[in-house]
Amino acid sequence: MQPDEIAISLAEAARRLGLSYQTVFARRHEIGFRLEGCRAWRVWPSRLEEITRPRYKVTRLALRSTGDSSCRSDSVTAPGGLISARQVDKELDALLARPTAVRRRNTTTA
User: Minimal CA–CA distance to 9: which of 37, 38, 45, 50?
Assistant: First the structure.
């Protein structure tokens, strides 16, 4: 908090953050404070700056330019490999075949 700072409402904080009021209200205990004697919640603008400031100075791997622009997933092969047309027909027939077992009788009706 700075000495000349004026506290803002949760609605104004939501507008400045680009969030919905419900989102800011759900996190009011983390970012704001309540005025004594009333039910109004307020937020210091410096606290909003503190929340939105990046926490770590991390160089992202995606932003590094290595000169190689190929996709890393090009070398990935599908599991199982190729199968023959005969095996495909056999598996499809097994899936589409009618069940040959005797159906159970319904025991809930008399």
Answer: 45
CB burial readout 80-101, b (16+ within 10 A) else e: eeeeeeeeeeeeeeeeeeeeee
Instruction: Tell me the pLDDT of the chain (110 aa) as tens digits.
Output: 667 789 899 999 999 888 899 998 998 888 888 888 888 899 988 888 888 877 665 544 444 445 555 666 666 666 666 678 888 888 888 888 877 777 777 777 65
Q: What values do phi and psi take at 9, rounded to 5?
A: -80, 170
Q: Does an H or E element contain 8, and which?
A: strand 8-9
Distance CA(28)–CA(21), nearest Å, equals 10
Q: What's the pTM value of the predicted model, to 2 decimals?
A: 0.47
